[in-house]
Amino acid sequence: MNLARDERIFLMILIGNLIVALIYLLVGVLFIVPAHSAAQDDETEILYDNRRTYLLRFLVMLMCPVIGAAFFFMGHLFYLVVFWREVDLADVIFSKERVKTHLKADEERERDIVPLEEAILVNEKRDLRMVMMNVIKEDFSNCLASITLALDSEDSEASHYAAAVLSDELNKFRIYVQRLWRQIEEEDAGQTECEEMLLDYMDSILKQHIFSSHEQRKFVQILTGAAESLYGKGTDKFTVKRYEEVCLRALEIKDYESCAKWCARMAEQFPDELPTYTCKLKLYFARQDKAAFFEALEALKKSNVVIDNETLELVRIFG
After folding, report:
1. Which one, 16, 183, 193, 195, has the greatest CB density within 10 A?
2. CA angle at residue 261 from 225 to 219, to 5 degrees?
3. Residue 116 neighbours by CB distance under 10 Å
């Protein structure tokens, strides 16, 4: 008798649990989810409390009678009690400038590092491979010229590392230059961002002389073309450094006419800067124009320009 009554009570609990689970599923799918979707501005699917969520909760309630429903109910009740209002973050300030990250030095790695040139010179395979792997992990865009030295290494693994790094980096350079050049051709007359980005980026790679002479000349012509476009839109974006970069890259491919033109423009805009004199001296020396060279050197000596050690040594030798 008691057994039959317990079975009836258990069956009634299962039926009641099923009814509650079905009501929960239908209300959520037919009313709550559409209401949340309508409240959103866009048509993207809501990430929380969507139809899939209600279906999974329904299955949990069926497999865990009473306990499943009680768990979800208590969880929702806890949410209402603890998070009943939104947190006011008006007085909270997030400043990246105040965050200082101090990384512990990798003493084992730093102790074994040698310059790439020395590793190649000594021809120690262990050192060369370790240096190549460390270079690959870091920003190696400014040391491509050193990586090219490893191409002739007797160690096939090190030369493979160098070839893979150079091939990938140079392909990125070619694609990025072509994309920026197309943007320069399509941009408005007042826009100069692409020219500035192209000048700075190309010079950082071209000054390492990692391309063949033919390809180097081709990219320098693109560089001077971008400089010409920027100059035509206004000289206010031209700095002494950019003038010097264009002059030196043109001088390296022996385009003396282009170099002389940019030297004259730099002298017109920045007459009292050291690169204005040094670029002229390098140009006249390359052309073997002695009269112009000594004339520029004499003008530098009489000027009030502060010279560096390299130029001071030049003045001592030829002065």
Report:
1. 195
2. 30
3. 23
**Whose CA is closest to 277, among 296, 257, 254?**
296
Which range scores top for mean pLDDT: 21-30, 35-44, 154-163, 300-309?
21-30
SS (H, E, C) 89-143: CCCCCCCHHHCCCCCCCCHHHHHCCCCHHHHHHHCCHHHHHHHHHHHHHCCCCCC
Q: Within 13 Å of residue 283, how many CA atoms lie on the same side as its CB?
A: 26
| Residues, the chain | 319
- Give me the residue label for tokens 């051709």: 185
CA 3 remoteness from chain centre: 73
Tokens 């001592």, located at residue: 316
Query: Measured between alpha carbons, how far is 132 from 116 in angstroms, rounded to an integer?
Result: 8
| Whole-number Å distance between alpha carbons of 131 and 129 | 5
Residue 35 has pLDDT above 70, yes or no: yes
Which residue in 128, 246, 139 sits closest to 196, CA to CA?
246
C-alpha to C-alpha distance for 177 and 171, rounded to whole angstroms: 10
Q: Mind listing the pLDDT tens digit for each residue in 45-58?
A: 455 567 888 888 88
Beta strands in the chain (DSSP E): none
Rg (CA), the chain: 35
158-189: b (≥16 Cβ within 10 Å) or e: bbebbeebbeebeeebeeebeebbeebeeeee
Q: SS3 of 272, please?
A: coil
DSSP state of 66: T
**pTM more than 0.70:** no
Task: Give the H/E segment covering residue 81.
Answer: helix 67-82
Identify the burial level of 247 via C-beta atoms within 10 angstroms of its C-beta, where 0-12 means exposed, 13-18 middle and 19 or more buried.
buried
